[in-house]
Amino acid sequence: MISCFRFLLASSIVVASAVMLGTMTGCSDTPNNVSINLNQGQCVQLSQYNSSAQTTMYNDNPDYYNLVANNPQSSTITPYCMAVTVQNNNTGDNANNIQITNSGLQVSFTPINSSSTTVTLYDPAAANVTISDESQQANNVVLFDPQNCATTTGANVVTLMTGGGYCTFYLEILNESSPIGVYPYNITYNYTNGNANYSVNTTMNQRVYLYGGGNNGLNYVSANATSAANRSSTAAWQTGISGAPQSFVQYITGGGYGFIYYAAGTGIYVYNGENTTQIGKSFQYNVNAIAFDSAGNIYAAVDNNGLWVYDISASSPQWVQVQDSNGYISNSSNIISLTGFEFAGAPNTLYEITSSAAYYCNNPNAATATESCAPATGGSTPSIFFATSSDVDSFGNLYTGDVDNLNSVGVSQYTNIWSAQFLNNPSIAYTGTSGPIINGVRWSNLTGTSTVYFGVGNESTESSVYQCLSGACAPLISDSGSGSSVSGIINTVTTDGLGNLYAGGQNIFSADWSSVAGVVPGGFVLFGMSSDSPSSGLWTPILTTDGEPAIINYVAVGSMLTSY
After folding, report:
1. CA-angle at 447, arms to 441 and 453, nearest 5°
2. Within its chain, how far is the Cα of 539 from the centroid?
3. Half-sphere exposure of 79 (CA within 13 A, CB side)
4. 351 CB-near residues (< 8 Å, 6+ apart)
């Protein structure tokens, strides 16, 4: 039997299959050898668009323009980005050039809590046309197409010539909006060779990982522990991140474009989804926290050694100690918590917190290694702050873990003056540890309500995780039949892109996982915060592997696009 198709023996290449319109009784007169390749980590560059397309994007969608204008250079492996190349490999006398058909570039995916969806994508700025019923975005992934690979209408439709003609478009994650798990995107490129219509396709995955820093190094969880289907089985921490030092990891944060930054002892490292690299040289003392300014420069709070900056735009970047023009932060200050205001349109500020004071630092300048700090004072300013226990909301308000008196548990809010609205109220009969340590403060509005979560770091009898709503804090209770809380030592909390809450620490227990023997050393996950009933949820454990990590110091969530 004679086949109509030619197959390439390469795992990364998917060869076209015929999709014939109408009835065909025989093979095409010409060969059909078209491939599609994924090159993960590669971002589109603004310079790839002509000036007219740049202007159109700037005027019609400035958010996309700013994203592309600030994309890492093409030589940088960037977790949020994927380059996709379609190539016409036909050769010979009867080989035909190909063009995309009216069905265009289609991406199929399954949104959370929904059924499979197919979207036809194109880039209106590059195409310079408006195509009805087509979009630039699929879920939280956007298409950038400076070569007009996906344009099916107008003057900019491209032709892929025989003998290797190719076209490359780019897909990029816009935001963290999925829970931990793996989400496939099927990419189909529909085209014609003049005799018949065909399609070539491949699948990329959006992988959303939970990263946990422990005494054994950097760990991760990839299984979707929050889905109802997976709650009968239990997720576990894994190791094996390429290049990650097998040492104490005390802090993790997600940077722009999906990079994961973390502090391990005296060094700061970045993981790009493929490998780990140390940023600059090690410090003399341990790093307590990491933050970023509005330009993406990296700041490090070093134990008893003030604030340092890494200017990413310098010709030879290196760590330089930052000088506060007002003298509040010195070269020997012990900054235990460091938070940047990184929301869109935010002022260029850093919040820097010591064990006894909080500072609002304006205009950190990486090039000159300077800043201008002032105390965040007024009202009933807290007097005791705890390490890495702060967060900033989208309005610039600072939330910090503090103890106002020996038996008060909660967080305080700083706007222009300190507010006691999130301090423990009398309705909570807190009888646990005197002077509780507040850890892992996290602000979120992903459930539609402004919410602050925090953990207690030295508790053995009371609830260890609290939720603050409408000016009052209360133990976070599951919607199980027993209305269970969790107890144990909580070091850190975070939320994913749909509002599910994750916490890590040591010796954690909840009646919700009675089927799992004993306490969970490494951490746990709260399921249901983003469900139809935002107040509902079940505590679900994340187990250790061979007893590690025995302690989780800090957690963060990060996504990447992969070819596997």
Report:
1. 15
2. 23
3. 25
4. 337, 338, 339, 340, 341, 358, 359, 360, 361, 376, 390, 392, 398
Report residue 1 as tokens.
Answer: 């039997």
- pLDDT, one tens digit per residue, over 499-549 is 888 889 888 888 877 666 566 666 666 655 544 444 567 788 888 888 888
Which neighbouring-strand residues pair with 509? Answer: 487
- Measure CA 415 to chain center: 27
Q: Which residue has the tokens 């994913």?
A: 496
Does the pTM exceed 0.70? yes
Tens digits of residue pLDDT in 148-163: 999 999 889 999 999 9
Distance CA 518, CA 523 (A): 13
Q: Is the peptide bond before 79 cis (omega within 30 degrees of 0)?
A: no
Tell me: the pLDDT tens digits for 351-361? Answer: 999 998 899 99
* DSSP single-letter state for residue 479: S
Residue that has been written with the tokens 């408006």 in this structure: 130
- Check: CB of residue 402 under 8 Å from CB of residue 411: yes
Q: 63-69, long-range: CB within 8 Å, 24+ apart, which pairs? A: 63/344, 64/125, 64/136, 64/142, 64/144, 67/172, 67/174, 68/44, 68/144
Q: What is the Cα 70 distance to its own chain's centre?
A: 17
d(CA 206, CA 422): 37
DSSP labels for 310-348? E-TTSSS--EEE-EETTSSS-TT----EEEE--STT--S
**CA angle in degrees (0–180, nearest 5) for 149-272-187:** 30
What would the two tokens of residue 548 be?
């590690």
| 3-state SS assignment for residue 47 | helix
Q: Is 527 helix (H, G, I), strand (E, B) or coil?
A: strand
> How far, in Å, CA of 238 to CA of 549, rounded?
9
d(CA 356, CA 342): 25
